[in-house]
Amino acid sequence: MTQPTPFPTDRHLDLDEVYAQCSGPGGLRLSEFMARKMGLTPGSRLLDIGCNRGVQTCFLAQEFGVKAMALDPWHDRMQGDPMAEHVRRNAEAWGVSHLVLAQKAGVPDTGFASESFDFAYSTTALEMVRGLEGEQGYLACLKEILRVLRPGGVFGLGEPMHLDVPLPLDLEPYVSQGDFPWKECFRDLRSTVNDVERAGFAIIEADYAPDAWSWWMEYAAHDPFCKQTPDGDPLTLKVDNGRWTSFGYVIARKPE
Fold first, then answer.
1. Taking all residues of the chain, what is their mean pLDDT, rounded to a whole number?
2. Which one, of 115, 87, 112, 114, lies nearest residue 101 by Cα?
3. Residue 100 belongs to what H/E stretch?
4. The listed CATH number (3.20.20.60, 3.40.309.10, 3.40.50.150, 3.30.70.560) that belongs to domain 15-253
5. Which residues contact 157 (CB under 8 A, 6 or more apart)?
6. Is 164 helix (H, G, I), strand (E, B) or coil?
7. Residue 226, Cβ density class (10 Å: 0-12 exposed, 13-18 middle, ≥19 buried)
8. Looking at residues 46-53, what average pLDDT do you find?
9. Mean pLDDT, residues 214-227
10. Is the pTM of this model over 0.90?
11. Could you say which DSSP state residue 176 is in?
C-alpha cells in the first residue's frame, strides 16, 4: 500500500472533527490536493459546489486567500438545519467570514450570472446527482459550472470513482445497496473525463489520486456515519480491499 504524501497543513489533525464536517473520503487533504492542482490564487473568486458543512471551503479561504461562495441544497442529516447555516458558523469559527458566503442552492439551478467565478470546485457531490438523475442530470450540472466560470476559469472535480476494471462479483451486492448505490453513482476516470469534455471543458489534467485508498481508509475510520453503521461503507471497503473503489480528479479549463 502506498504511503500518504506529506500534507503541509497537518495542524488540522482531529480527523473525527474533520470528517464530522465533510462528506466522503479525503477531508482537508483532498482540499489541499485539489487546490494545488487547480492553482488557486489569493483574491480569486471560487465557487464550491456541494460544500456540505463548509469546512473544506473555510480551509481553502484560510490557506489560499480565495473569496468563496459555498453552495449546498441539502439539510444536515444529524441536526436537520440547512448546510448553509453550518457554513456560516464554520466561517465564523475559522475567522474567514469576510471571505466565505453560503447559499442553500445547487447545480444546475445556481441563479448566478454567467462568468461570475474564476474557479469552481466540487468534491464528493456530483456523483450523487448522477445516481439520482442519471448522466443527463450530471451533464446539466457540468454545463452550469461552465456557464458561471469566466473564460479561462478552472474547474476542479474530485470524485469517488472506480478503477477501469470489471466489478468483482463478490463486491457487487455491497455496491448495489443504500440510497446512493456506488454502482450507480461511480464511474471510471475515462468516463468522467468524457463527460467533462462533453460539457465544453478542455482537460488540463486527470488521474486517480495517488492517496485514494488511504483517503477511503481514513473515511471508514473517522466518518460518523461509518462509525454508526460499520456493516455499511466500512464493510464494503473491507470486501473491496482496493480492487475496484478509488478516487479520481479532473482539472479542466473553460476555453477562452
1. 94
2. 87
3. strand 100-103
4. 3.40.50.150
5. 122, 123, 126, 192, 196, 249, 250, 251, 252
6. coil
7. middle
8. 96
9. 97
10. yes
11. G
